[in-house]
């Protein structure tokens, strides 16, 4: 989602090193979703724009794709609207922002430089609290595990747990929860939806609104090889390698590939997309890692559709999506429906990948509002 992260690419906000180091020391302590560090923060869609909210940066315990404990950072935002009763919570998964720590949502939301902040504000204006995960390795030690589905799903669910365990937020354990995300956030929110019943069954998830979902990474890579979106392939390869070092990505890269991937780990999506665009895998490798059984097995572990989400799903995808093929979204819908999931699928007839998150944001919010109100769903499997 390059156009949604241009400002993030320019961000130079320093990271909270002391807080991060303290959080990392507690990675193995406690339970997933436990808050290990927190500090007051702020939420501004544009620089200095008031929002009538309070915000906190948190570090919380989560779980890697391999099942090991880790610590992830994020931001909790709560409207200050005088409401005294319970309010819904959205655990929000952002689209691709990049791999450098300066790209993390928590590094940009306080300064009005996070491009999805205006979409998050639509949610806080409804009186909903929002927690935004930074994902594993983005704003915390290590390389961001970009596109590693189980890692992202854990981070999204544990962010919701953490928000309800942050005393200052005032959100009880039985807070009604919605899951929301698009693009990379679509993968993360969809994985959260699939994992919730087994990983976080205590969360009161009422529904998931997910769009532009890269449900099959192998097909997405084949589609983007040599095209405008080819930089995302190399970011994804670096993310998979970060989660599974035995893949040894570096052993497949030629000198130009090593230089490109090293730069991608330090930069945000606008720079990475430009640097990696219109390159073929063969341009940057000595042999294609995606042809190897171990790589294909790991990509397959991030493929969605193997489990039915426990709560209803609103899934949307642009017919003209130039980064994530429409057929990938339709296949995920079919897989979920075949497993008995409650899915409402919506085709965005006019527009492309980036515009889809904007034009569909109101409908996605309205769908979640209906779930919080207990209204009936309208599945169209």
How would you portray this structure in words?
- By secondary structure, this protein is an alpha/beta fold.
- The protein is built from 15 helices and 9 strands.
- The protein has a 9-stranded mixed sheet, sandwiched between helices.
- Strand 6 (176-182), helix 6 and strand 7 (204-211) form a beta-alpha-beta unit.
Coarse morphology: globular
Q: Sheet bearing the most strands, described?
A: 9 strands, mixed
Report the C-alpha radius of gyration, rounded: 19 Å
C-alpha end-to-end distance: 28 Å
Strand order within the widest beta sheet: 1-2-3-5-4-6-7-8-9
Order of helices and strands: HHEEEEHHEHEHEHHHHHHEHEHH
How many helices? The count is 15
Binned, the helix content reads 25-40%
Mean pLDDT over all positions: 92
Give a count of the beta strands, DSSP E runs of length 2 or more.
9
Give the uncertain stretches in residue-range form. 1-25
Report the portion of residues in β strands: 15-25%
Structural class based on helices, strands and sheet pairing = alpha/beta
């Amino acid at each position: 989602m390059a156009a949604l992260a241009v400002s993030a690419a320019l961000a130079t906000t320093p990271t909270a090193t002391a807080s991060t180091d303290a959080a990392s020391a507690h990675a193995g302590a406690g339970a997933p979703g436990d808050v290990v560090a927190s500090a007051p923060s702020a939420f501004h869609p544009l620089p200095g724009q008031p929002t009538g909210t309070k915000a906190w940066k948190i570090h919380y315990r989560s779980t890697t794709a391999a099942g090991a404990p880790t610590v992830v950072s994020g931001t909790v935002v709560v409207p200050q609207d005088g409401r005294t009763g319970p309010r819904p919570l959205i655990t929000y998964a952002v689209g691709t922002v990049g791999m450098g720590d300066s790209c993390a949502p928590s590094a940009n939301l306080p300064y009005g430089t996070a491009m999805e902040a205006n979409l998050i504000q639509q949610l806080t204006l409804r009186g909903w609290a929002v927690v935004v995960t930074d994902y594993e390795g983005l704003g915390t030690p290590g390389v961001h595990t970009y596109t590693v589905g189980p890692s992202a799903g854990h981070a999204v669910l544990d962010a919701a747990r953490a928000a309800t365990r942050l005393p200052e937020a005032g959100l009880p354990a039985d807070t009604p929860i919605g899951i929301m995300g698009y693009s990379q956030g679509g993968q993360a929110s969809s994985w959260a939806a699939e994992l919730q019943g087994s990983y976080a069954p205590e969360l009161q998830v009422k529904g998931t609104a997910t769009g532009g979902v890269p449900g099959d990474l192998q097909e997405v890579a084949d589609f983007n090889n040599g095209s405008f979106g080819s930089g995302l392939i190399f970011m994804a390869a670096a993310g998979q390698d970060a989660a599974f070092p035995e893949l040894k990505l570096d052993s497949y890269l030629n000198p130009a590939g090593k230089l490109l991937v090293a730069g991608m780990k330090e930069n945000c999506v606008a720079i990475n997309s430009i640097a990696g665009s219109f390159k073929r895998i063969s341009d940057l490798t000595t042999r294609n890692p995606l042809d190897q059984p171990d790589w294909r097995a790991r990509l397959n572990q991030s493929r969605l559709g193997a489990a039915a989400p426990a709560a209803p799903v609103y899934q949307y995808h642009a017919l003209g999506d130039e980064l994530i093929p429409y057929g990938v979204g339709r296949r995920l819908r079919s897989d979920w429906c075949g497993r008995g999931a409650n899915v409402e699928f919506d085709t965005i007839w006019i527009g492309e990948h980036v515009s889809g998150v904007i034009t569909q944001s109101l409908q996605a919010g309205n769908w979640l509002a209906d779930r919080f109100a207990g209204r009936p769903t309208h599945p169209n499997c």
